[in-house]
Amino acid sequence: MLEFRNLRLTQGDFTLTADFQVPKGARVAVIGPSGAGKSTLLSLIGGFETPDDGDILWRGKPFGLSAPFERPISHLFQDNTLFAHMTAAQNVGLGLRPSLRLSKSEQSAVSEALRAVGLEGLETRRPGALSGGQQSRVALARVLVQQKPLILLDEPFSALGPAMRHEMIDLAKEVSERLGATMLMVTHDVSDVDRFADLVIWVEGGTCQPPRPWAEMKADPPQGLLDYIGT
Ligand SMILES: Nc1ncnc2c1ncn2[C@@H]1O[C@H](COP(=O)(O)OP(=O)(O)OP(=O)(O)O)[C@@H](O)[C@H]1O
């Protein structure tokens, strides 16, 4: 379980607060207007920002001031962060070892992850020779191979067209199911939420609301959500 305990961060005149729990294995969409604090929430979980007050707990233990690499988290951001001069397999292997000195079993894990995302046979391609969707698959394979129990996606597929984006979201769901991981995804698209989420964290003006079932929130939307989706 992921828990936000009286979490607070102030940056200039912006203050983010969160005080709730996210159940283990949930797929959670983080939505809200631009500038509401969605990326800041993910940065706090990842350890890229330090709260002024409160803490984030994972399985009952506070993250405290632990560094990003010490946290049990994989990340996927909008630009995929693939290295252009490395092959697909090397880009995935980096998720296991920055030195890329992989053991036999680690090499097998990389091949298996690439197979799982439908990239068998493309292991030696560099990102420039892959389509946008294939690059996203490499990034997802890197998340898969890391086998972390907590996965943060910040508008991961927003550069893709709708059909490809939906394919990637389905694949991300598969990855979360394979790993039994808790997944939080920032998105601006309600159709992504429909496809992806069990629960939704609504963020508005820095206030992160406790997760609610998406079906329930759609049936009784907060005014901010109605304004946001333009209904
Ligand atoms: N270093 C900083 N100093 C002051 N304010 C900041 C700083 N970094 C971010 N902010 C403010 O924090 C708020 C939250 O930003 P954040 O990027 O988390 O929003 P978001 O909901 O992810 O927005 P978007 O949907 O546009 O990506 C914004 O109002 C932003 O201007």
Automatic annotation (TrEMBL):
The keyword RNA-binding belongs to this UniProt entry's keyword annotation: no
SUPFAM superfamilies in the record: P-loop containing nucleoside triphosphate hydrolases
Domain of life: Bacteria
Residue intervals of the ABC transporter domain: 2-230
Nucleotidyltransferase among keywords: no
Keywords for the protein's UniProt record, in alphabetical order: ATP-binding, Cell inner membrane, Cell membrane, Membrane, Nucleotide-binding, Translocase, Transport
MF GO annotations: ATP binding; ATP hydrolysis activity
A Pfam family per the record: ABC_tran
Identification of the protein by name: Thiamine import ATP-binding protein ThiQ
Gene source species: Celeribacter baekdonensis B30
